[in-house]
C-alpha cells in the first residue's frame, strides 16, 4: 500500500486538547500536512502567527470552521453576523483555507418558522457571495443531520445543499460528511450530481451504535457506515480533493492523548487515503 497522505487532513476538533501550534507540530510529526482549522484555536494563536507556522511546516488548509451562525434576529443582528463572516473569509484567505465552513445555525430564539429561517440563510449566503469571490475562499455548504435542525443548522440534506450551490454558482461548494449523509437514500445520486469540482473537501468519521449523545461520533471503522463503498462513489466520479477526519467524541477520543488519536487516524484512514483498513487500536 502507498504511504501517500497528501490528500489527508485532520480536522482540528478531533484533537481539542492541543493548541494550534501543538496540533500543527503533532500532525506533521506523524506525516500529516493537512489541517482543517477551527476558529477558536485560530483566534487564540493569531491569524498571522498561524499563517507563518503553516508555511514553516509546509502545511495546507482545506477549511476554516466554523462560520458565524445565522440564527439571529432581523436587522442589525443579521447584519453583524454577515459582517463577522466577511472577516472570517478574510482570515481564511490569509491562512490559505479553501473554504469557510458555513454552519448556519438552527432556529432563532422564539421562532418555529423553519422555512422562513432557511430563506433567511439563503439570503445571507447571497450577501456573502461577492466577498467570497473577491478573496478566493468558497462558501462551504455542509448539510448537517436533521437532528441538528433545532440548534445547529437548518441546512439538513445534501439535496438542499446541492440546490443552493446551483443557485449560488461560483463561490460556493459542497462539503459532504459521512456522519450527516450516510443514511440518506439520495447520497450517492447527489454526490454524482455534484461532481468532483463542486465538492471542496470530504469528511470522515463513523456512526456508532448506540450513539450516546450528539457529540459521540466514532473513529473510522468503529461504526456502521460503509466508508469504502462511499469512497468508491467518489473515485468513480473522479473526486481528487482532500479528505478530513472530523471526530466529535467527548466520551472517548477527546479523552485520549492526542498523539494516540492521530496515530490511529493514520492507521484507519491511511496510509492509502480513503481506503481505511479498519484495524482496531
Automatic annotation (TrEMBL):
Task: Give the signal sequence positions.
Answer: none
Xylose isomerase-like TIM barrel domain sequence ranges: 42-261
- Known InterPro entries for this protein? IolE/XylAMocC-like, Xyl_isomerase-like_sf, Xyl_isomerase-like_TIM-brl
GO molecular-function terms, A-Z:
isomerase activity
Listed A to Z, the keywords are: Isomerase
Which sequence ranges form a coiled-coil region, renumbered to this chain? none
Q: Name one Pfam family in it.
A: AP_endonuc_2
What is the protein's given name?
Answer: Sugar phosphate isomerase/epimerase
Originating organism: Paraburkholderia azotifigens
Amino acid at each position: 500500500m502507498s504511504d501517500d497522505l497528501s490528500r489527508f487532513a485532520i480536522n482540528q476538533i478531533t484533537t481539542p486538547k492541543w493548541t494550534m501550534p501543538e496540533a500543527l507540530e503533532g500532525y506533521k510529526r506523524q506525516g500529516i500536512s493537512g489541517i482543517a482549522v477551527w476558529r477558536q484555536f485560530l483566534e487564540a494563536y493569531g491569524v498571522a502567527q498561524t499563517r507563518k507556522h503553516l508555511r514553516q511546516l509546509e502545511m495546507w488548509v482545506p477549511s476554516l470552521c466554523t462560520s458565524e451562525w445565522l440564527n439571529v434576529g432581523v436587522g442589525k443582528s443579521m447584519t453583524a453576523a454577515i459582517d463577522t463572516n466577511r472577516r472570517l473569509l478574510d482570515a481564511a484567505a490569509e491562512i490559505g483555507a479553501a473554504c469557510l465552513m458555513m454552519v448556519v445555525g438552527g432556529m432563532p430564539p422564539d421562532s418555529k418558522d423553519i422555512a422562513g429561517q432557511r430563506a433567511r440563510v439563503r439570503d445571507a449566503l447571497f450577501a456573502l457571495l461577492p466577498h467570497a469571490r473577491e478573496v478566493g475562499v468558497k462558501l462551504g455548504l455542509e448539510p448537517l443531520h436533521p437532528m441538528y435542525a433545532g440548534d445547529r443548522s437548518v441546512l439538513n440534506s445534501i439535496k438542499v445543499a446541492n440546490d443552493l450551490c446551483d443557485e449560488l454558482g461560483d463561490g460556493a461548494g459542497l462539503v459532504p460528511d459521512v456522519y450527516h449523509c450516510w443514511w440518506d437514500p439520495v447520497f450517492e445520486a447527489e454526490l454524482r450530481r455534484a461532481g468532483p469540482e463542486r465538492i471542496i473537501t470530504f469528511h470522515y468519521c463513523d456512526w456508532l451504535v448506540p450513539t450516546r449523545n450528539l457529540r459521540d461520533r466514532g473513529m473510522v471503522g468503529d461504526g456502521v457506515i460503509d466508508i469504502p463503498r462511499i469512497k468508491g462513489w467518489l473515485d468513480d466520479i473522479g473526486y481528487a480533493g482532500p479528505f478530513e477526519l472530523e471526530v466529535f467524541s467527548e466520551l472517548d477520543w477527546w479523552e485520549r492523548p492526542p498523539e494516540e488519536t492521530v496515530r490511529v487516524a493514520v492507521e484507519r484512514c491511511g496510509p492509502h487515503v480513503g481506503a481505511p483498513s479498519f484495524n482496531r487500536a
